[in-house]
Amino acid sequence: MVTEAEWERVQGELRFGQVITGTVVRVPKPGAIGVFVDIGLGVEGFVDVVLLPRRRIEDWPVEGTVTDFEIWWVHTGHQQIRLKPSDPKYLCEDFADFVARYRPTWPSEIGKALRGPKPSTP
Fold first, then answer.
1. Which structural domain range is residue 61 located in?
2. How far is it, in rounded angstroms, from Cα 25 to Cα 110?
3. What is the chain written as a DSSP string?
4. In a domain, 117, yes or no
5. What is the pLDDT of residues 53-100, one digit of tens each?
6. Which domain of life does the protein's organism represent (predicted)?
7. Rounded Cα distance, 57 and 119, in Å
8. In a domain, 118, yes or no
């Protein structure tokens, strides 16, 4: 964990939808939780299972995978940046339907600062 001041600084520099390159560092329970990503900011990145392929967990990025992610939302209590894969091969098959159903405001949030009004969360 970083200090509260550092956490505030990190959030102030990032935007929803911003693409950031990261390295998958842990896949604790393939098909059940998600993947943890080192995004080089001193705070943890995480991709939730709901955003990863459901048909074949073999399509999940494995430890050591370096790829691009988009900033999806922020879990303030855990000082964690939630990510979504930029590469469609690592993204759930029904992402457009998922967004329409659970996060319809996503397109309007892209480019906005992480701090400020909190987006809806699935």
1. 4-105
2. 26
3. ---HHHHHHHHHH-BTT-EEEEEEEE-SSTTTSEEEEE-SSSSEEEEEGGGS-SS-GGGSPPTT-EEEEEEEEEEGGGTEEEEEESSGGGS-TTHHHHHHHH-TTHHHHTTSBSSSSPPP--
4. no
5. 988 888 999 999 999 999 999 887 788 999 999 999 999 999 999 999
6. Bacteria
7. 28
8. no
- Write the pLDDT tens digit of every residue in 44-53: 999 999 999 9
Distance CA 3, CA 67 (A): 27
For the chain, what is the domain count?
A: 1
pTM higher than 0.70 for the full model? yes
Cβ atoms of 74 and 20 within 8 Å: the answer is no
Structure tokens at 49: 């299972």
- pLDDT bucket at 121, cuts 50 / 70 / 90: low
Report the C-alpha gap between 92 and 50 in whole angstroms. 7
In a domain, 83, yes or no: yes
Q: What is the CATH number of the domain that holds 60?
A: 2.40.50.140
